[in-house]
Amino acid sequence: MSDALRPNDPVAATEAARTAIGHLRRTGDRLMLAVAIMNPAEPLLLLGDWDDAEAELTQAVKSDALADIDDLTCQRGWLAALRGDDRTAEAMRCHRSWTGPNL
User: How much is the pTM?
Assistant: First the structure.
């Protein structure tokens, strides 16, 4: 839902993602929780609320113990790069290589 709402209504996208996060914290599904936590970051950035985007991602690492989820680390690195924090961005850089589409 959050992805569908993001282009036209980032506020609603953020709220939908936060609702999903609340439900997923109760299920124990770490991977889906990580995906749900990443969902509000982009709309929050679109709204200019970079501190809230960072808080969502930081809470995922500290409170939800998701530091081992690579995509979450990549998104935190992306936010650090946008803020001009080269050192943190480099430390959190994605190390996966893209080999092209799976056709």
Answer: 0.74
